[in-house]
Design a protein that fits this description.
Elements: E1 2-9, E2 16-23, E3 46-48, E4 60-66, E5 77-85, E6 92-95
Antiparallel strand pairs: 1-2, 1-4, 2-3, 4-5, 5-6
Length: 105
């Protein structure tokens, strides 16, 4: 059950939130693993903060705040780090594990 999404710029100190969205449904509505929420677009039944453009070469973190349906599962969120590289049609997301020498390219 997805409650919120937060994207932060981890290359700044302190880390800066570049976009967030909070779902209004209470209790949280179950989400499909195939659900997609494009960056910066406000889903229905949600509220959002201002959206900043993502920049190439910066390290970002996306955090999904969740409420599990299984009371024995302590998971309350999922996080992934990524950066962007390229321009136009060649622009792509690079997951953290694909970085070489700490450089996004």
């Amino acid at each position: 059950r997805l409650q919120a999404i937060t994207v932060t710029d981890t290359s700044t100190q302190p880390m800066a939130t570049v976009w967030w969205v909070m779902f209004d449904a209470d209790p949280a509505v179950p989400q499909s693993a195939a659900a997609c929420y494009p960056y910066g677009q406000l889903p229905s039944a949600a509220k959002s903060g201002n959206v900043e453009a993502l920049k190439n070469g910066k390290v970002y973190s996306a955090f999904l705040n969740v409420r599990g349906t299984d009371k024995s599962d302590p998971t309350r969120g999922y996080s992934v780090r990524f950066c962007l590289a390229g321009e136009g049609a060649t622009r792509r997301l690079i997951p953290a594990e694909a970085w070489r020498n700490g450089v996004c390219n």
